[in-house]
Amino acid sequence: MAIISGSDKKKNRRYGSIQLRYAMTYVVITLAVLIFLNVYCSEISQMVFYGNKQTAMLEKAQLAANELESLEIMTTNTVKQALSVIDDKNLARLVVTDHCGKVIYDSVDPKTGYALMPQVISALNSIDIFTWHYNAGVIQAEAAVPIINYDMVAGCLYIMEYDTEQGKLINSLENNIFAITVVLEVLIVLFSIIYAISFSGRLRKIAHSMRIIQKGDYTHKVELSGHDELTFLGQEVNDLTERLQISESKRHQFVSDASHELKTPLASIKLLSDSILQYDMDMDTVREFVTDIGNEAERLNRMTQKLLSLTKGDAGSDYVEREIIYIVPTLQRVIKMLSGIAETNNISVYTQIEEDIPVLVQEDDLYQIIFNLVENGIKYNIPGGSLFVSLNRRDDMAVLQVRDTGVGIPEDAIDHVFERFYRVDKARSRQTGGSGLGLAIVRSMVERNGGEIKLESKVGEGSVFTVEFPSFDTEEAE
Amino acid sequence: MKKRLSLLLIVCMILSGCMNQNSSYITELKFYYPLQSADYTMGAAYVQPESREGDGMDKSLTNMLNVYLAGPIDPITYRMPFQYNTHVESISRGSKMLEITLSRGFATYTGLDLTIACACLTMTCLELTDAEVIRIRAKDATLDGAEFIEMSRDSLLLKDIVEDVEQ
To answer: Which of A111, A280, A414, A443 is the most exposed place for a label (fewest CB within 10 A)?
Structure first.
């Protein structure tokens, strides 16, 4: 079980605030929308009622005013009589004034002397007016119209309604919308909290796993359920971890192999030099021992150079500066360079060149590839054997083949010969000065120059190394 | 003795608190004027009070009314209901009535304007004094054909709200 350190806790706290911000943003936005809808619905419902009420009340007031306009003189009695035709059962108050605002008739308080409400003032200034107020389920609506006589304002008729029924409807609608809003918002808050926790919880799990892997536990796996992007991310992390594990394992193996390979010649050098120092020897023996020391030093030197070459290939990116060069001149240089060794080992080298083909490679790499393959073909051949080097074109590929009549490579070793430090016959390799890195270098160089290498071999018959590069004819280049 | 003195002090304080409308003790005055534009919000009246600082003012009723008749200090919110140079000619008090005689120029007002002016003056006087009825005259003139105009708080319907109706 991994222990979360102080720095991990800090990271968690920072991460937690993102989670909170995400949830709060979502909640605030939805709350704002719901509040807006609440207010909007309330306003719309009031507007609908307002329109209906306005029409009804102004019509009623106008109807009453028309009745009063026909009166010669407006007194309390004449007004009362004229207004008897009006349906006033919903009216909370009806007031009739003269042109000065003096009350002629008040349905509520007969003692009212003067009516100077804002609505009355407006009507006495010849303006039909309707106002309404809604508060807590109650609507109070007022309407006032002028009473016109001989084209002059003779007075004002004011009515007021106190409506609880419609008020209750509006109130009920508002309450329902509010209740729905509250429920919705609670659900949204819950949902956003749950979702934020779930989402960030899964992200935290991935982050936690990555911290464990970072500390070196490559066997740890991210376990996430589901089929979403986070699950995919978790799988990617697992794949990456596997590759890291393989890479780390190879690195360990390489370091282990390298140190072992380097240790062997060093041990030989130490042994030989100790022997020279400890024992009395004749000069011939000393000379022999010193020669051996030189050979081992030379072997060390070659190995370190090859290692350096390999690490350069590993460290460098896939991009190398390549140029279009023809294969044959490089091939001929290599053959010439190794002709001495071939002669010494009694190996006959034959070349079969169909045509010279241009390829896009790094020249030094091409030289090294051909050199290593031809050298191997000579070293691991049978005395009196042959080595065939051919170059031909197949479709758009330049095919270079090195075929020897050597001892061949067992089938189970074919897949490993390109691995670093792998040797089919360790004893023979040591004898011939081999380090087990030559073919690894060849493959690395072939691949980084855009080519491909294959091996076919049969024990007792020999091996065939085939290297293919895309041809880069000058017509194509142009 | 001490108890009696304390009791006397308490009674005096109560009485002073009940001495409403004694102008000497009024620190904030309410002068009523009509609004420039009508306010139709619930419970709003066309005639509304403008607050004035009473400190430093000569607290005689005549003087305060003359200050009132000079017009509102906020002409944007309130309208001047009186003619320029309208002033108090005389004041007489009854037990519950206050009779005010204004300068002759006031008699030029008629109709709704006269009603509004009288209503404003009435409400102001009801705030400044303990009178219940205000009678308004113009010196040597009639007011829209009447000798005087009489108003009280009960006779004025300045705003119409449901509580009033239900009562």
So the answer is: A280
* % helix, strand, coil for chain B, step of 5: 35, 25, 40
Task: Please give the single-letter amino acid code of residue A132.
Answer: W
- From the DSSP assignment, how many helices (H) and strands (E) are in chain B? 4, 7
Tens of pLDDT, residues A209-229? 889 988 888 888 888 888 888
Do B45 and A116 lie within an 8 Å CB cutoff? Answer: yes
CA–CA separation, A52 vs B10, rounded Å?
Answer: 60
Task: Report the pLDDT value the prediction gives residue B9, as an integer from 0 to 100.
Answer: 67
What is the least distance, in Å, from the CA of A109 to any CA of chain B?
9
B20 or B136, higher pLDDT: B136
Mutate to test the interface with A, among B123, B160, B163 (most CBs of A within 10 A): B160
**Is the Cβ pair B115, A114 closer than 8 Å?**
yes
State whether B160 and A113 contact (CB < 8 Å): no
Q: Mutate one of A46, A111, A114, A159 to test the B interface: name it (highest B CB count within 10 A).
A: A114
Can you tell me which residue has the tokens 């030559």? Answer: A438
CA distance B151 to chain A (A): 8
The β-bridge partners of A404 are A387
Number of C-beta neighbours around residue A271 at 10 A: 14
Count of residues in chain A: 478
pTM more than 0.90: no
User: In which residue are the tokens 């113009």 written?
Assistant: B138
Cβ atoms A61, A159 nearer than 8 A: yes
pLDDT given at position B48:
93
pLDDT category, A13, cuts 50, 70, 90? low
Are A53 and A139 in contact by the 8 Å Cβ rule? The answer is yes
Task: Sort A145 into a burial class: Cβ within 10 Å, 0-12 / 13-18 / 19+.
Answer: buried
Is it the case that residue A47 has pLDDT exceeding 50? yes
Q: Is the pLDDT of residue A360 over 90?
A: yes
What secondary structure letter does DSSP report for B78?
B
DSSP calls for A155-217: EEEEEEEEESHHHHHHHHHHHHHHHHHHHHHHHHHHHHHHHHHHHHHHHHHHHHHHHHHHTT-
Which amino acid belongs to residue A206?
A: I
B43 conformational bin, left if phi > 0, alpha if psi -120 to 50, beta if neither: left
Cα distance between residue A114 and residue B116, in whole Å: 9
pLDDT in tens, A127-183: 999 998 887 778 889 999 999 988 899 999 999 998 888 888 888 888 888 898 889
**Mean pLDDT of all residues in A52-71:** 90
From the list A437, A442, A448, the residue with the least C-alpha distance to A302 is A437
Do the strands A152-163 and A138-149 form a parallel or antiparallel pair, or are they unpaired?
A: antiparallel
ipTM value: 0.81
pLDDT given at position A84? 84
Q: Coil, strand, or helix at residue A375?
A: helix
Q: Is B144 an 8 Å CB contact of chain A?
A: yes
Chain A residues close to B37, C-beta within 8 Å: none
Alpha-carbon gap, residue B20 to B129, rounded angstroms:
7
d(C-alpha A150, C-alpha A78), whole Å: 18
Residues of chain A in contact with residue B115, where contact means CB-CB under 8 angstroms, are 100-102, 114, 116
Cβ of B158 under 8 Å from any chain A Cβ?
yes
DSSP string, A237-304: HHHHHHHHHHHHHHHHHHHHHHHHHHHHHHHHHHHHHHHHHHS---HHHHHHHHHHHHHHHHHHHHHH
